[in-house]
Amino acid sequence: MNAKVYAGDSIRLMIPGLVTARTLVPYGTKLKGVYFDGYPQLVKQLGSQPIYEVKTEKDIMVRMRDGVRIAVDIHRPKVEDERFPAILAWGMWGKDLQEAVRWLADKPQPYIDSPFWDGTMEAGNFMYTVPRGYAHVIPDPRGVGNSEGGEERTDVDIGLLHKKEDIYDLIEWIAAQPWCNANVGMMGPSSYAEAQMAIGADPPPHLKALHPDECPTGTGDHFHGIFDTMPYHIMYGRHGNDSVFPVPNYPYKVKRPELLDLPKEELQARLEEALNHPDIKYNSKWYSYIKYPLKSGFTFNSLLNSFHPRPGQPALGVSPDIDKIKLPIYLGAPWGIRLYMFGAFEAYEHVSTPARNKKLIVYPPGYPPRPYTWYHDEIVRWYDYWLKGIDTGIMEEPPIKMFVMGVNKWRFESEWPLERTNWAKLYLHPGGRLSTDSVSGKPEPDRFTQVAPYKDPAVCCVTYRTPPLVEDTEITGPVALYLDAAIDKEDTNWMIDLVMVDADGNRQLISQGHLKAAHRALDQSKSKAYDPIHPRQDPVPVPPGKVVRYGISLLPAACVFKRGYALELIIRNQDDVLSRLGTWGIYMLPFMQTVTHEIHFGDSHLLVPHIPAGQKYGLKI
Fold it and tell me: Any idea which fold 45-222+316-392 has?
């Protein structure tokens, strides 16, 4: 049989020893189909240079339309007779924490490899932007620090933290200041990107462009039904060296979670359902959040809603008005990070920004270092054009700039998926083989039994691998797994890894996918063959023992598998919570039942976006 023990630490997320730098490309150079050692920048005109000293004004109290005042830090050039464009970094992590960029910017902490990687250091390096002629404005949203309006709040109140009216009012206040030339942009990853996506649908007059980096916010279409514990661990300081979300610097009252206000009988039924579910009942950490709702209203609401997901429920990474965004936008995301990948690609596809004003950069796999200081030259090039009118050359570059794994180089693309894609099926075969050949006969299914992890934390899996490739083979684009399988329970979690195995046996994560079996229904109106989409609706139990088809979207990917390398597919139903990533809080809620899985052969296949080299259009493995 093909079953084996899965070890999360045997697969790399980051590329060891990779140093990211830019490559300056002279204007007029050929760009199509060219690899660059660093992220390429077409140089048409010299951009802003570092000629100004930094002046900082702390805790400027700015009044919002309802009278609430928020505290704002303004970092700007130390001159009084010039006006400058402003870049607003609006996010939840506390403006006073961001001051540490002064002494930490030259000490970047790499993800996973440093115990001091702090994902809350995300408002950007004002010591880079300000000398180049920008005001860099960092507020505390209402209810954070010295900003008013937090006298009564839930623990993580996303609506309060990214309140559109407040962002609107602050932008218009900035534009009216004597040091501002009335042109305002925004920057920052994660929470700072969410704020941009929130205001972008109904922007104030002086907001000229957006740069939502590491963007988690899209349509939310890539719903998989498994409760992801990562947002909780980020908010509560369990992810790397993240600090806990900021609160007011004054006494405040904790609001009741909104789901406690459900009708009494409905609330009681939903509480009993959650508390008796094995995933909660046998996991005391999450059981406690149902029993003690005021401990974290954010977690209580999220957990209860996960049992009965619905369109329109409050959810991280979902913008119902994304198609109303028309501003120039430059999105960013790193390969392999589920918090950002689907959101950034969804946003790139669905915003209504004219194609000529829309860009996407995709970084090497894994989170970039913190503090957030990398790629600031790209941000300045973008805003030199939109806020200063300097034709740096950025707008003459193809719209997509991406890192390609395997060759570990960068290139430009013009569309997504790539027009030259040759979609190919890699069939799962007995004996753990993955091949373009169809399956012969009617072989017995593979089986693996995952014991409930509170009984045994070892993670079981089955794997399927191509033979060593006889030529360089590129897989770039959306990826989907179509799996014919049976289980002996009414539900399971399907977790999928796509891995590059080099000639020395080193394994690099290329992509991942997830699907709760009870949420296998497809949204036919949104699904594509390469991108199966599942609706937010009540779970539908799986008939035990029945072979069922599952369509699972994997994160977009870009990788050249070199000659002699292999592509490996891993199927499991648990994350390795004891791995490095697991101990950093990167795991799905464990499935707390023992379940046997059968993988049936015949039409179970991985649909991959093969990018042919030259005139070779067929993929044969």
Answer: Rossmann fold (3.40.50)
User: In this structure, what DSSP letter does residue 145 have?
Assistant: B
**Domain limits, CATH 3.40.50.1820, in the chain:** 45-222+316-392
Q: What is the pLDDT of residues 364-390, one digit of tens each?
A: 999 999 999 999 999 999 999 999 999
Three-state secondary structure call for residue 87: strand
Report yes or no: 387 and 185 within 8 Å, Cβ to Cβ: yes
Hey, what CATH topology would domain 3-15+418-611 get?
Answer: Jelly Rolls (2.60.120)
Express as a percent the part of the chain with pLDDT over 70. Answer: 99
Q: Hey, what amino acid is at 193?
A: A
Sign of CA dihedral 601, 603, 604, 607: positive
Look at residue 615 and tell me whether its pLDDT is greater than 60.
Answer: no
Query: Average pLDDT of 46-74?
Result: 97
Output the six-digit token pair for 19: 């140093």
Task: Give the pLDDT of residue 29.
Answer: 95
Q: Is the dihedral of CA 309, 310, 313, 315 positive or negative?
A: positive
Q: What is the mean pLDDT of the chain?
A: 96
Number of H helices, E strands in the chain: 14, 27
Per-residue DSSP letter, 317: T
